[in-house]
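Troubleshooting: if your tokenizer reports a length mismatch, compare your output against this known-good record of 108 residues.
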Amino acid sequence: MAIDWTQVGKDIEAAVINVLKGSWSTVSTAAGPQIQAMISIGQSIEQSQNQGRLTPLEYNTLRSAQKNALEGILSSYAAVGIVVAEQAADAAWSVVSQALLKAGVAFA
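Known-good structure output:
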């Protein structure tokens, strides 16, 4: 099943806003491009999986890199603590992971 990445993007933003609450307005300018990068990586994972070229190690590496990148951006703001940044990054990747699972990426 093809993934609607536009909807995934909206769902990621909603998940992050839910964690960050009022801090979203402070971090949105910097976090927005990283969320777009996360979507692009998700699309790349989907394509690689469809071509039979994705290993669990590659998936885990990409997942970790994307979560760490978003967490780093968020935690650089005084308005967002490290734990909240981790929670927001986890919530964001959870949306990507669920979309990939529905599309057949077994180890997402």
